[in-house]
């Protein structure tokens, strides 16, 4: 019964409480409704044009090119001999065992990393978001891996994962666990990369969760205290719903970032052993640059973009549902 | 009751200290190993000494021998300069181009303004990983492979930065601009002499977001800067690591050097840094 009463309280939430960065929009002034003058239009375009041109040339045009190349047999070495081959690249994707493996590796990485990292980040944020001494120290500690680049982190962990004399195996040896072939066994390599990736990224999401936690109005907790709610009730009925939008945002960004997996396998395992860590983007990179098959690589890039697009659209729908 | 709370607090600190160690130990290990000689790195690895600095008497050849050797073996210094040119180039041009675009979208009414804003926001969805091949072909055709231009120019315009600037300028009071207009100041003059100096926080935030992104960039520099003379530090590290024989002490020194600029930014500009992050997270 107690739980019920708290639950009804939460429905009185002011709606857009969670994701509200910065100051509020100013009230529209009458000026804004004035018709634009020719001079204003010229000045506006003068300010906007450099950015528009750059985005057009270096983002939209390559995007369109990728789409176009995906229907051709474009090889880097023979750029002028590319010819239109229709859907051949796309039909080949379904027969390409390497693509299938890279695709499932990426999906596996994503479905493990996303919930684990989300949970770790939320846990850290909740731990830090208390009245504690050395709060800033703890926050900085959790955040410090974020400051390091993926390249640095990957090299460092390659050394730590070293089977013979790596740091982790040395310490496992001290507690009697035999040496593990972290990066050299097909069964463990991807999981080892996952552990490292969570370690590196969780601090980043923790910071965003912290900002979200600070946006939950305190009076809700006070009201819950008056109703005699315990820690658990408050967490379920105030904190979690209050973090919904932030969590959703983090969920989507981790998913997309995870789908772009490249640096870790490229540096730590070169996609091996037995292709067990080769990711989709890595496969695209290899096809394009090592085998110079731009046409086929572009077809895979198009598929990759469509997947990212779908994830983003799902995010939009979920957030809209929350607001509407 | 009081005892229970005390126990709760103590467990809290124990958990937090343990977790901090989990997050910090690779960093500590990297820093201290870079000061040790090759033999000692491996000797210390099987004990907690791995996380302690070496005693002066243990180090033959001085604390910084690995750093000196690493800098002598490869052009680490050049790689850092290249990284700085790359990131600072993007920041300087990016701040100008993106702030102007953000200002235009916040202040002026002109045909298709809403349409362009929509297009710019839509480009946020395009993952850079999906266009690096055609972008390489384009930059190749322009003759920009292995040039700073090829590294920098494609990443000057940044939809996210434009959006941040627009949000900031929307809230910026108009009175000053109107006063300057009365005094006969040109639109460009108003922007660079009045708006820019008064908008330091947003410029700092965008500069830091750009710095974090591009200092750690890997894919684009790897693709477009194949020549050693233009290699950035992140790419240099990868070559350093794959070049036998691996001297781990030197590798650790090089890793530390590559991390220092980010550490400096983080320590001294923490406020803006965190602001930049939370903007990334919540202003969507």
From TrEMBL, chain A:
Keyword Metal-binding: no
GO CC terms, sorted: plasma membrane
Swiss-Prot/TrEMBL keywords: Cell membrane, Membrane, Transmembrane, Transmembrane helix, Transport
Main location: membrane
Keyword Transferase: no
ABC transmembrane type-1 domain location: 103-315
Domain of life: Bacteria
Record's subcellular location: Cell membrane
PROSITE patterns: ABC_TM1
Membrane topology of this protein: Multi-pass membrane protein
Transmembrane spans: 38-61, 107-128, 140-160, 193-213, 246-267, 296-319
GO BP: any one term: transmembrane transport
Family recorded in the similarity comment: Belongs to the binding-protein-dependent transport system permease family.
Protein name: Carbohydrate ABC transporter membrane protein 1, CUT1 family
Species the sequence originates in: Alteribacillus bidgolensis
TrEMBL record, chain B:
Keyword Signal: no
Location of the protein in the cell: Cell membrane
Pfam families: BPD_transp_1
A GO CC annotation given for this chain: plasma membrane
GO biological process: transmembrane transport
Domain ABC transmembrane type-1 intervals: 80-269
Protein name: Carbohydrate ABC transporter membrane protein 2, CUT1 family
Lineage of the organism: Bacteria, Bacillati, Bacillota, Bacilli, Bacillales
């Amino acid at each position: 019964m107690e739980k019920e009463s708290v639950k009804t309280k939460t429905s009185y939430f002011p709606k857009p409480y969670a994701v509200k960065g910065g100051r509020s929009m100013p009230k529209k002034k009458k000026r804004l409704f004035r018709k634009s003058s020719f001079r204003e239009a010229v000045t506006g375009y003068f300010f906007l044009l450099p950015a528009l041109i750059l985005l057009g040339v270096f983002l939209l045009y390559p995007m369109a090119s990728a789409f176009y190349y995906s229907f051709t047999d474009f090889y880097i070495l023979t750029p002028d001999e590319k010819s239109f081959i229709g859907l051949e690249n796309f039909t080949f994707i379904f027969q390409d065992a390497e693509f299938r493996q890279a695709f499932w590796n990426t999906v596996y990485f994503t479905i493990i990393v996303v919930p684990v990292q989300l949970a770790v980040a939320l846990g850290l944020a909740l731990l830090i978001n208390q009245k504690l001494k050395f709060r800033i120290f703890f926050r900085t500690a959790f955040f410090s891996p974020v400051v390091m680049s993926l390249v640095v982190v990957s090299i460092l962990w390659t050394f730590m994962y070293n089977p013979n004399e790596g740091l982790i195996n040395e310490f496992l040896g001290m507690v009697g666990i035999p040496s593990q072939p972290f990066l050299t066994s097909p069964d463990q390599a991807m999981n080892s990369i996952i552990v490292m990736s969570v370690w590196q990224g969780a601090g980043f999401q923790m910071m965003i969760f912290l900002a979200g936690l600070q946006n939950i109005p305190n009076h809700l907790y006070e009201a819950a205290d008056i109703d005699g709610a315990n820690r658990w009730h408050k967490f379920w009925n105030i904190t979690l719903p209050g973090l919904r939008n932030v969590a959703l945002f983090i969920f989507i960004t981790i998913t997309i970032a995870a789908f772009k997996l490249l640096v870790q396998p490229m540096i730590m395992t070169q996609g091996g052993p037995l292709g067990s860590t080769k990711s989709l983007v890595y496969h695209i990179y290899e096809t394009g640059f090592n085998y110079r098959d731009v046409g086929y690589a572009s077809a895979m890039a198009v598929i990759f973009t469509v997947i990212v697009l779908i994830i983003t659209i799902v995010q939009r729908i979920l957030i809209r549902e929350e607001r509407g | 009751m009081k005892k229970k709370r005390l126990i709760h607090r103590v467990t809290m600190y124990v958990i937090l200290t343990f977790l901090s160690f989990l997050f910090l130990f690779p960093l500590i290990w990297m820093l201290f190993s870079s000061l040790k000689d090759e033999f000692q790195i491996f000797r210390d690895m099987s004990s907690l000494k791995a996380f302690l600095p070496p005693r002066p008497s243990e180090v033959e050849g001085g604390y910084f021998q690995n750093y000196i050797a690493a800098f002598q073996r490869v052009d680490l210094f050049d790689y850092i300069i290249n990284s700085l040119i790359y990131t600072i180039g993007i920041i300087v041009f990016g701040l100008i181009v993106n702030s102007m675009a953000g200002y235009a979208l916040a202040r002026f009414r002109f045909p298709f303004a809403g349409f362009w804003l929509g297009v710019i926001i839509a480009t946020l969805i395009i993952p850079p990983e999906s266009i690096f091949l055609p972008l390489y072909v384009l930059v190749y055709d322009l003759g920009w492979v292995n040039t700073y231009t090829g590294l920098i120019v494609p990443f000057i315009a940044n939809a996210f930065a434009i959006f941040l600037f627009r949000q900031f300028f929307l809230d910026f009071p108009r009175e000053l601009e109107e006063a300057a207009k009365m005094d006969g100041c040109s639109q460009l003059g108003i922007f660079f002499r009045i708006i820019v100096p008064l908008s330091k926080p947003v410029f700092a935030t965008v500069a830091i977001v750009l710095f974090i992104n591009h200092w750690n960039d890997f894919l684009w520099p790897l693709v477009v800067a194949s020549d050693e003379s233009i290699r950035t530090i992140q790419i240099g590290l990868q070559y350093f690591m794959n070049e036998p024989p691996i001297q781990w002490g030197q590798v650790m020194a090089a890793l530390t050097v590559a991390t220092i600029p980010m550490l400096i930014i983080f320590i001294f500009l923490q406020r803006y840094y965190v602001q930049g992050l939370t903007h990334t997270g919540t202003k969507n």
